[in-house]
Amino acid sequence: MIKLDDIKHIYFLGIGGIGMSALARYFLAKSIKVAGYDRNASELCNSLAQASCSISYEDDLGNLPDDFNLESTLVVYTPAIPKDNPLFNHFQKEGFTLCKRAELLGAITKNMQCLSVAGTHGKTTISSLVTYILSDNGVDCTAFLGGISTDLDSNLRIGSENIAVVEADEFDRSFLKLRPNWAVVSSMDADHLDVYGTSEHLEESFRMFSDLIQGGELIAKEGLKLPSKYTYALNSDSADFSASQIHVNAGNYCFDLRYPGGICSKVVTGLPGIHNVENAVAAFALAYFQKVSVQGILKSIKTFSGVKRRFEYHVNSAQQIYIDDYAHHPKEIKVAIQSVRDLFPDKKLTVIFQPHLFSRTRDFMDDFAKELSCADRVMLLDIYPARELPISGVNSAVLLDKLTCPGKGLYLKSDFPNILTEIEVLMTLGAGDIDDLVEPIKAHLVS
What we know:
- By secondary structure, the chain is an alpha/beta fold.
- It is 31% helix and 25% strand.
- α5 (123-136) packs across α8, α5 (123-136) crosses α9 and α10 (330-343) packs parallel to α12 (365-372).
């Protein structure tokens, strides 16, 4: 069992991950000495380094801080760290206390009112919006998010130790380490089949997560096979929370919202995409049961700025639109492209897509091809391997052959941005390092 009061030093293996970096920043704020290792010097790593966190980008034992000894140091790692990593093996061999990121997050939040948001899609936006609603309405909270909230400019909010908003990650069954008081489950679409094997095992894990709720209730998207007391949906007469009369007005999505206490007309969200209307309904429901006023929730939904890399505009002019999005699952690509079609029905769409993981590309090859083919032009990058080794016969060239859109091609990251011409609407999609292209593309388009 992790005893937080005994921690003097923490070493993070994979400190640049979105979840790991939030924990590192949390302990830095608690005046705990933090250090770590990552393969790449990302923006998150650079930010931590500026906050006096010692980070090494080589898995060399000589780079370990001298005072991070056996008696004083907790070692936290992610499942993405290879088991043959020299640092991991050193800590294990020497008898250091090791734990996964999810265990530490569970230990931090176990004595708080824990509001957990789970789901294969939407959890980052919902948890970030819930955090914004609470803080915007005077409910102090601490939040651990799976993305950079634009309003916070961070994946962490440090506030009251009484309430925690937590993005509950299903990868590696991490969310089973939490003890939620209230929870939202937004989706259970097949994903992470390298971990779960089948969609049935994934769904069983979500049911196990639902069983962990204590003192509150589960709010689930209508139609999910979960023991939820409350449901939410779009255009539903049976869900407890539902949006209807959904339309676009002056670039914003507007809708009527029905909830157990009545109906709110002409609700506005500045977040693009009909999927974000659904996310807003989920966030409304969770905040409603925390006794935030309805009018306060609606005000916050309207003013929430969103999450970086979630349908994030970088160029938005009459001549050109450039949007960057984290979509890396076929269903996420589907809603991203459909959102563009809703907002800009008369413009041609070019998509630059970087597949994420060989296993995910293999498992959903035909679905990726179907959804990407809804664009006018697709520019494919090589697969981003993350934690995986290549799989024979699985590559971007195979995916390219399956595309049926008018324009398609396979490119290197180094080809961009100079090859981009005749752009009306451009989207970069993917969960790897495709975000390295965002600033060069933006500069190219506005030059």
